[in-house]
Amino acid sequence: MELTQTRSGSRLPMTDSHVCAQELIDFIDFSPSPWHAVARCEELLQAAGFVRLSEAERWNLRAGGSYYVVRGGASIIAFVMGAQNAAETGLRIVGAHTDSPGLRLKPRPAEEVQGIFRLGVEVYGGPLLATFADRDLGLAGRVNVRSGDGYATHLVHFEEPLLRLPNLAIHMNREVNEGGLKFNKQTELPLLFGVADKDGKADQRFRDLLAKRLALDPEALLTWDLCACDTQKGTFWGVDREFIAHRQLDNLASCHAALSALLTIKAPSATCLCAFFDHEEVGSESAAGAGGSFLADVIGRLAAAVGLDGEDQRRMLARSFFISADMAHAWHPNFPAAYEPGHRVMVNGGPVIKSNANQRYSTSAETAARFMAICAEAGVPCQQYAHRSDLGCGSTIGPIVAARLGIASVDVGTPMWAMHSIRESAGVLDHRYMISALGSAFRT
């Protein structure tokens, strides 16, 4: 058994589950933004022999071939062509999302206020804003720069502490421990990043920062999509290192599990497909989101490549199965009243089947039973979750994709704590469980 050195100097066993969890931690370390996440997926796919396709070119697909296509820089679909007629087998699809809630820089973010440089941000999705305070924040995303008569896109990641959202001292906010930490999104969320010089040119200082990192002239900078990101690396924690902590577990853990499962598939009977979308945290209604045409376009081209007419395409969809993989709310012993009493899912208890009568999740009794059988085939435990009836329930890409494609769908997820915090937690066993379950789904 492999051993790993801890910071205290002791040596602890590195189980197969810890190896899987470490691979997830490494994946997230490389993926501070959705654009980085897709770039990392590309690296792993290319290393496994997958061929990149362009939506602007004709596709020539072969049985058993492995391919992927990117839209918008932060959405990616990868697939392995099945050996049998897709109209007879249907498709095996796992969907997840690359984006996470947080703080995004505005198009012209830099300003000087009484001798301090700061960067204006917009709130993206529904983050736990209080968790961003007093953290060592970096900056990551993509930058567009002039290149000839057009532009080129570069990824950028400031891994060192660059930005901060300092708390107001308790002496000036006496009710914070009773009333909770709250921020005005316009006036109190800008991130501090330096002391102003005598010229006070905040915009130039910010542009110089980006240009230096990219080794470019500041005048070449055009636009950017940049996120504030936690600089702390992922880690194991707990008395037996049974938990992991990291940023963006929601939902990069599902992306990594699905991709890991797909990369184990060799010569499948049915075509197996992973679809990772941007913009889930803000509703999915975009060209690159699950509410757009990306997945339908790819499926249509797959069908055309194997000669399916309209009738056979509908037969294919009728035999297809979609697994919407997103994270699930684990029972928290400090807040028992927040949970439905009969549906307390446990960390390290296995994948969670999520159900909601109002179709916030796409699960039906039939698709839940199908996923239970998949888990049983994989030798993996599974759990069931329903939200408290008196609390608003979040949603996923599951209902969106199921409605647009008209295919059977189930919503599942890995149990976790502190969803939408800048520092989330999940179980070491659960990530391996999910990889095994999704691998079984691809083979079924």
Unreliable stretches (pLDDT < 50, length at least 5) are 5-10
Overall morphology: globular
Kindly state the percentage of residues in helix. 25-40%
Number of helices: 11
N-C termini distance? 32 Å
Number of self-contained structural domains: 2
Annotated CATH topology of the largest domain: Aminopeptidase
Describe the structure.
- This protein has 2 domains: 2-100 and 247-443, Zn peptidases (Aminopeptidase), CATH 3.40.630.10; 102-230, Aminopeptidase i, Domain 2 (Roll), CATH 2.30.250.
- Helix content is 27%, strand content 30%.
- It has helices at residues 16-29, 34-47, 86-89, 176-179, 202-214, 249-262, 294-305, 310-318, 365-378, 398-405, 428-443, and strands at 2-5, 11-14, 51-53, 66-71, 75-80, 91-97, 102-113, 116-124, 137-147, 150-163, 191-195, 221-230, 235-237, 243-246, 271-277, 321-325, 328-329, 352-354, 383-385, 408-413, 415-417, 424-427.
- The strands form 5 sheets. The chain has a 9-stranded mixed β-sheet with strand order 3-4-5-15-6-16-20-18-19, sandwiched between helices. The protein has a 5-stranded mixed β-sheet with strand order 13-14-22-21-17. It has a 3-stranded antiparallel β-sheet with strand order 7-8-11.
- Strand 9 and strand 10 (150-163) form a beta hairpin.
- The protein is of the alpha/beta class and 444 residues long.
